[in-house]
Amino acid sequence: MAAYQAPNRANNLRFTFSNLSVTAERRAPETEADCWRVTFTLQSYGQGSPVSLAAQPNVEVTKNAGRWASDDAVLEYSNEPDGLHQSFLINRRPVQGRLVLDLAVRLEGVQMALDQSGSFVSFTHLDSGAEVMQYSGLAAFDATGRDLPAQMQVAPGGHVLLVVDDSTAQYPVVVDPWYNDWSSLGGQAGAQFGFSVAYLDLFSTFYVAWFGAVAIGAPWFDGGAVDQGAVFVFYTDLTTGHLRSTPDFEVKGSLAYDHFGYSLAAANNATVGATLNNDDKGDLIVGEPDMNYSGSFGAVKVWYGTFEGLGTSGRAPDWTAYGAFNNGDRFGFSVATGDVTGDGFFDVIIGAPNANATTTQCSGAASSSNVGAVILYKGSSSGVQSAPASTAFGLYYAEALGHSVAYAGLVRGGSYPGAVVAGAPYFSSSQGRVAVYYGSSSGMSVCSDWNYWGSQSPGEQLGYSVFGGVDVNNDGFHDIAAGAPYWDNPGYSNEGRVLVFKGSLTGPVSSPFATLGPGNGSLEHQAGCRFGYAIAGGNVNADAQNFADLIIGAPYWDTAPNDNKGKLFVYWGGTSINPNPEPLGSADPTITNEHFGSSVAFIYKLTDPSQPCLIGGAPDATKNYTKEGMAVVWRWDDE
């Protein structure tokens, strides 16, 4: 039987794959205490009458992974920088009892013990008692995307059992197909770390290399003043290829109750090919919608990328704009960026959903309160310009245009400049409205060039979230997506949905290309999950056809009755969008009411663009402190 070795230098481990077994040991032992070995062998699955798995003549090896397959099951091992990851796909339900995967464990020089939580098995050295390895990260879900309760057990005779409650599951069942690459907690009660997230592509002169980073907003963070807010940026460690555990750059709000970090965006050369000042170094954009500057007008601040990331923590912003419509306009409630004007520089897009209209510039508009506004500031070789290039006001009383904004990209094809998409979710008894504004060399249209109105009254709130600037079907036109998280399906209130509109030679098409959400495809109905609360996208699985995929948050999704843990769903792009999403939960199964999926961003790369990631926020997570919040990075592994 063939055996294949895979060194893991980041953890000084060596893995050997052989049929249904994998062995872990020190790669370069330096002392006798380093001489130990643990071998896992999948023997069977089932309970009562276990289904045995006969070893195959050879294991299939691709890159850093080993794969074994039969009609009943698929087993994959993947050697990654943070350790070995296993994936089990069980195609058929066992004849009796729950789904139990039986792993026989051979121990040399170590002993194993189950943690009290049942979430991991610890391996400790027989002589020193030091922990040398953990077996952890158990998760399971069925064909509909439903999370399945799962735990580890240690059985006599050296066996680890992975026990899954599949009583209501639809097969096939997957056990741990994704793995958590990184997570971080807010560390302060009520900070709501993870309320907003963004990806940056930065540069280091010291390493002479580009690297990925994530920015995480905590708008209720107290850093000397109550609820002033803060943003924490974590850089990739270029040695390990993973995000660091402590932030490398921190900035805080100016005054109490500013809620700095309420919204985030980043201009990245790696993803689109430009930045705000076109110096190739990623720039950070932060919204501060309640900043008390001569009244609560709000602000947006920008930090340009430097030759060492974003520079020194706490440094003053390179650019600031203040709201100037009315007290409480919430300027900076939403922010986005992209080259709207087609001049090679990213522009800053800002939403002020409580702005009062100061003009009746568009047909049907009336000077009215809380119509909202979308404001565009142009980028240039010297940075973002000080005066806005364009301002588009909402058309209807209290519709809150600018509640969400996004760069819509080339929705009319490459011969035109970019465009802006914005949401007005409270239009007409909260049915909602989505508007697109085409770009030009001077700015953007001040009257919408394309509109789509919600159809459910009261309350679907179409436009609560918007996203664009990606091509999901790879037809050469960018597409847009709009969330309606309070959409009611019959019998399922506030279930939510997302509408996707294709771009074309004449702009966005008039009817949806796809409708995504519970009750469509394999995703089961769930009342109150608020699917479409947040949307992001990119080529998550790095497919060669470069189809963009959509990542959609449902922060009130229940994995157990009323636990409100939340979930992200990844929909694969193609000539048609695959209606059967990949679900992603939070990293910590012990936390409830965390609302994971309240925010989301696509990560083009940390160090390797062939391994894209995504980040999701759970701002209400309570682990060590009440509502400290959490952010989680997941890396797609399709081996």
Task: Please tag this protein with its features.
mainly beta; six-stranded antiparallel beta sheet; Methylamine Dehydrogenase, Chain H; 40% strand; single chain; eight-stranded antiparallel beta sheet
CATH class of the largest domain: Mainly Beta
Tell me the fraction of residues in β-strands, as a range: 35-45%
| Overall domain count | 2
**Envelope shape:** globular
CATH superfamily of the largest domain: Integrin alpha, N-terminal
Average pLDDT, rounded to a whole number, is: 87
The residue fraction in helices comes out at: under 10%
Number of strands: 47
Count, helices: 2
User: Which stretches are poorly predicted, pLDDT < 50 over at least 5 residues?
Assistant: none
Tell me what the structure shows.
- With 639 residues, the chain is mainly β.
- The model has no long low-confidence stretch (mean pLDDT 87).
- It has 2 domains: 4-177; 248-601, Methylamine Dehydrogenase, Chain H.
- Helix content is 1%, strand content 40%.
Layout of helices and strands:
Layout: E1 4-8, E2 13-18, E3 21-26, E4 37-45, E5 51-52, E6 60-62, E7 65-69, E8 73-80, E9 83-90, E10 99-108, E11 110-114, E12 121-125, E13 131-135, E14 140-141, E15 150-155, E16 159-164, E17 173-175, E18 179-185, E19 196-204, E20 209-218, E21 230-237, E22 242-243, E23 249-252, E24 263-267, H1 269-272, E25 283-288, E26 299-303, E27 319-322, E28 334-338, E29 347-352, E30 373-377, E31 390-393, E32 404-407, E33 419-424, H2 427-430, E34 433-440, E35 443-444, E36 450-453, E37 465-470, E38 479-484, E39 497-501, E40 514-516, E41 534-538, E42 549-554, E43 567-571, E44 582-584, E45 599-603, E46 613-618, E47 630-635
Antiparallel strand pairs: 1-2, 2-3, 3-4, 4-5, 4-10, 6-7, 7-8, 8-9, 9-17, 10-16, 11-12, 12-13, 14-17, 15-16, 18-47, 19-20, 20-21, 21-22, 21-23, 24-25, 25-26, 26-27, 28-29, 29-30, 30-31, 32-33, 33-34, 34-35, 34-36, 37-38, 38-39, 39-40, 41-42, 42-43, 43-44, 45-46, 46-47
